[in-house]
């Protein structure tokens, strides 16, 4: 697959750690790019130690493979390089000269002290596409601050609209259950890298890309951000309710919970007809979505009382037959047992010398022309050092052995 993959002609030097950068470079690897993950000798990416659970336990041979590390490092070649040494710096310079893309997430100015920043490496490779990922970007009063996902979720406004409303038990600002700010920044970075590659094909010029977690998380506040910009009123936490669509939230059923996601007036009319509540869809207070937003406080209790009369599966079976959007609230065991998830190939198992079976969540992008998930499992620390030095830099075994000794 990899020789025919869309990006099999692209070579990537991955100097990033944790999630945002690795999330972007894993996609590039899935699409066939030759991704070289540079890691600290003996320790590697911080997330190798973010366990349990571990697929390969840490020990005397190295930090092992945590489940977290497995989530974002498929398809890459791991090499150990100490960039604090002149030899390590020279290896990275030589690799940058042979690569199309560099992705890094060091603090602003962190690579300059090693002579490995963009300004230092651009003369080595003028066509290089350089993507820096930081918490706050390369400019501005916060540029030198460290940025972490949880902090960014708070500062971007995301937590101000996530969680139970004030006055309800347990009400407080709430983060999303995954590191969504890191992932979003990784996806925006990926889009920027691919755009720069297309630009380079046309102009022959490289590019320096400045990505910030805060910027990308604010950009994805979407309707909540524009609601504020249009109205001048900052949105607040609404639990599972939607600020612009009603009814669009969680409802208790006779045996659990379900989602109603009614997005237009036709769906609302069908829902009312199915549940025997035509009086609601005929009432001017609820007939249109705009009216339902204004009068949600009286409408929602009436719908909640109806939904409590049946179990979740009964409701889903009934409503889906009438094209009313609804669904269960699954845990991850239920997710991966779902026949739709199985049919789409989201659960994958790869194989490597480190472990007979390496579970993975497959790339969600589907190409008619071929696979889009790399079959190369996440590597043990430094497993590919000799291969990369030999195949990319042309070193012989004696040179590699001398570097290891030193």
Q: Tell me, what's the shape?
A: elongated
Q: How are the strands ordered across the major sheet? A: 5-2-1-6-7-8
- Computed CA radius of gyration, to the nearest angstrom: 25 Å
CATH fold-level label of the largest domain: Rossmann fold
Question: Summarize this, please?
Answer:
With 406 residues, this protein is α/β, with parallel strands linked by helices. Helices cover 36% and strands 15% of the residues.
Detailed description of the structure:
The protein is α/β, with parallel strands linked by helices and 406 residues long. 36% of the residues lie in helices and 15% in strands. It is built from 17 helices and 13 strands. It has helices at residues 20-30, 67-70, 86-97, 118-121, 149-155, 180-203, 213-219, 222-231, 265-275, 278-281, 289-294, 296-307, 312-320, 332-337, 339-343, 385-391, 397-405; strands at residues 11-15, 34-39, 54-56, 65-66, 76-80, 101-104, 129-134, 207-212, 248-252, 257-261, 326-327, 347-352, 355-361. Strands 5-2-1-6-7-8 form a 6-stranded parallel β-sheet, sandwiched between helices. A 3-stranded antiparallel β-sheet has the order 9-10-11, covered by helices on one side. α1 (20-30) packs across α6. The longest helix is centred in the middle third of the chain and has 24 residues, at 180-203. The chain is elongated, with a radius of gyration of 25 Å. The relative contact order is 0.13. The mean pLDDT is 95.
